[in-house]
Amino acid sequence: MKKIILNTLLLVLVANAVQAQDKFFTKTGKISFFSSTPMEDIEAHNKTTTSVIDTKSGKMEFAVLMKAFQFEKALMEEHFNENYVESAKYPKASFSGAITNLSAVDFKKDGTYKVTVKGNLTMHGVTKPVEVPGTIVVKNGAIQAASTFSVAPEDFNITIPNLVREKIAKQIKVTIDMNYEPLKS
Amino acid sequence: MKKLRYVLLLLCLLACTSGYAQDDLLSLLEEEEETTEYAKASFKTTRVINGHSLENVAGGVMDMKISHRFGMLNTGAYNLFGLDQASIRIGLDYGLTDRLMIGAGRSSHNKVYDGFVKYKVLRQSSGKKTMPISLAVLSGVYLKTIEWQQPERENYFSSRLEYTHQLIVGRKFSESTTVQFMPTIVHRNLVATGDDTHDVILIGAAARQKLTKRVAINAEYYYALPDQLPTDRQNSLAIGFDIETGGHVFQLHFTNSTSMIEPGFLTETIGDWSKGDIHFGFNVSRVFTIRKPKKSES
C-alpha cells in the first residue's frame, strides 16, 4: 500500500514538473511602436510587458501598461495618455490568442520557427480579432518571440483630430520582442 | 478496498493538479510589483490664467509664451471693445529637471523684466508611494524699467524691484477636475502712498474643469487680506478657456487685471468686473524639446 502511495505521489510530482516546463513567461517584454509621416516621426517603447506562453496548447497572452510607454518628447507622452489611449480609463492593453501552426514548432529543439498567431487584441476598451506573423526562436531551453505588425488607431476608437491628422500615421507599426524563461510553479 | 483507496487518491491528486491548468495564463504570474504613479497634466499648461498652476514644464523642454491683454470691454465700439489697445508679455520657460523650472519674460505694461524659479516639492501620487497633494514653490523677481514718475527726486535702483513668493498646493481630483490654493506674499521696495504696505499677503484659489479632452475651463481668484492696499484696488479675478492643439495651448480669457505678472495683477488691479472693466486676453504656449530626456523614470 505504502509503495502504491509513494509511486502515485512520484508520478504526480513528475507530471507537475513536466507541466511547469510547458509554460514560459516574461515580465520585461519589449513592445515599441512607430508612427512615420512626412511631418513627424513618433516612437515609443515599453520594456515591462508581461506575457505567458503555453508550449503545449500554443496559447499566448500579453498584458501591457499603457502608461509605461516612454516617448522622446514629454508632450507626446502626455498627449498619448490624455488624449489618445486615455490610459487613466483604460490602463492596460492585452492580447489573448494562440499559435495556429503549433505543429510546426518543436519547443524541445533549438531552431527558428515561423508562426502565425491569432487572437483578440484589446486596447482603449475595444477588442478586435487580429492575426499576425511572428518568429519563435528556441535556444538552450529558452524561448524568444518576435513579431512586427500594423495597427490602425481608428479601429480602436482612437480619434485623431484633423489638426494633427497629418502628424500621426494611419497605420502604426508595432514591434514585439519577448524573451521567455521557464515558469516555475 | 485497496483499489478504491488508490483510485480516490489519484482523483484527489488529479484535482489538485488540474488547479494549475488554468485558462488564464497571466494569472499564473504573481501580482506585479506596485509602482508609484504620479498625477500628470493637472492643468494644460504652467499658468492657470495670470498666475501659476501646479504644473511644470518637463525637464529639457522650453515653453515660449506670448500673452496679450487687450483694453477694457467697456471702452465701447470706438475702441472695438478694447482690441485697439494691447499689453503684451513675451516669456521663455525652461525645465531644468522634471521638478525644477526657470523662466523669464518682459511685459510692455510698466516695462517690466521678470524672472522666476519654480520647484515641485511634493508630487501627487498613488500606488507604492501615496501623496494626496502636489505642492510647488514659486519665487519671482520683477524689475520695472519704466521712467521714474518723479525724476527730480533721488531714485534708487532697488526701488525698481518687486518680489513674489508663493506656495501652490492642490490636487487633481479626477481626470477632469483640479483645484489649487495659492498663499502668496508680494514685496515691493517702493510703494506709491502711505496706504500701501510693502508686503502684501494674498490667498488665491484656482480650478480647472475639462470640458472635452482638449478643452478646459479655468478660473482664478486672488483675495488680498484687508488694509494693505489703497481702496481703489480690486481683487484679481479671471475666467478662461484652455484649448490644446498638438504642441500649442491657447488660453482665451476675461480678467479685470491689466498686468500678467504677479506684483502687477495682485496689487495693481483697478478694474471692476461689475462696471465692465474687463480685459479680453490670450496666452499662447508653444513647447520645444531642447534636451532629449531621461530614458527611465527615477
Overall form of chain B: elongated
Q: How is the main sheet of chain B built? A: 12 strands, antiparallel, barrel
Instruction: Tell me the helix content of chain A.
Output: 10-25%
The name of the CATH architecture of chain B is Beta Barrel
Number of helices of chain B: 2
What would the average pLDDT of chain B be, to the nearest integer? 89
Uncertain runs of chain A are none
Instruction: Please trace the helix and strand order of chain B, writing H or E for each element.
Output: HEEEEEEEEEEEEEHE
Give the % helix of chain B.
under 10%
Proportion in β-strands of chain B:
35-45%
Q: What is the structural class of chain A?
A: alpha+beta
Number of distinct helices of chain A: 2
Return the CATH topology of chain B. Answer: Porin
Most extensive interface, chain pair and sizes: A-B, 43 and 38 residues
Number of domains of chain A: 1
Would you mind describing this structure in some detail?
Chain A is of the alpha+beta class and 185 residues long. Chain A has helices spanning 2-22, 74-84, and strands at 23-36, 41-54, 59-65, 70-71, 92-99, 111-123, 126-139, 142-151, 172-182. Chain A has one domain: Lipid/polyisoprenoid-binding, YceI-like (Lipocalin, Beta Barrel). The model of chain A has no long low-confidence stretch (mean pLDDT 88). Chain A is 17% helix and 50% strand. Chain A has an eight-stranded antiparallel β-barrel. Chain A is built from two helices and nine strands, in the order αββββαβββββ. By secondary structure, chain B is mainly β. Chain B has one domain (37-149, 156-248, 256-289): Porin, CATH 2.40.160.40. Chain B contains two helices and 14 strands; from the N terminus they run αβββββββββββββαβ. In chain B, strands 2-3-4-5-7-8-9-10-11-12-13-14 form a twelve-stranded antiparallel β-barrel. In chain B, strand 8 and strand 9 (177-188) form a beta hairpin. Chain B starts with a helix and ends in a 9-residue tail after the last strand. Residues 18-22 of chain B have low confidence and may be disordered. Classes of the chains: A alpha+beta (185), B mainly beta (298). The A-B interface holds A 1, 4-5, 8-9, 12, 15-16, 19-20, 23, 25, 27, 50-54, 59-61, 63, 67, 70, 72-75, 78-79, 81-83, 86, 88-89, 94, 161, 163-164, 167, 183, 185 and B 2, 5-6, 9-10, 13-14, 16-17, 20-21, 24-26, 28-29, 32, 37, 40-41, 57-61, 175, 213-214, 244-247, 287, 289, 292-293, 295-296.
